[in-house]
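Continuing the series of single-chain predictions for the mutant panel. This is the parent chain; the variants come on the following pages.
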Amino acid sequence: MAEGFSTAAANAVLDAQVTAYPWFKLHVGAPGANGTANAAAETTRKNPSFAAASAASKASSADAAWTNVAGTEDYTHWSQWSASSGGTFGGSGTVTANAVTTGDSFTIPAGSLVLTVPVAT
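Parent structure:
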């Protein structure tokens, strides 16, 4: 038996998380405990739409797209923030590594930015 939240509690936590920290920033490595490590040259934060949490999972419902990125690098992580600049760090996660060149576009497709919480079984 796995330990964790009830599904209803997990859904509430995930909905509250994205409400409090709706802005996502790209990184080229793990963002660390305060979200500032390994920041990408591309500093624009995106605020993608999300569907309501269900089954302890919350997925983006729209693309998160960066156009004309600022640097040549590999995006491997994201961080979550309370504001479009500055603000409070709320969490982080990984993306499939993707090499970009200055001026390229980078998109995390709808449904591909997913937050989960472990639930009791």
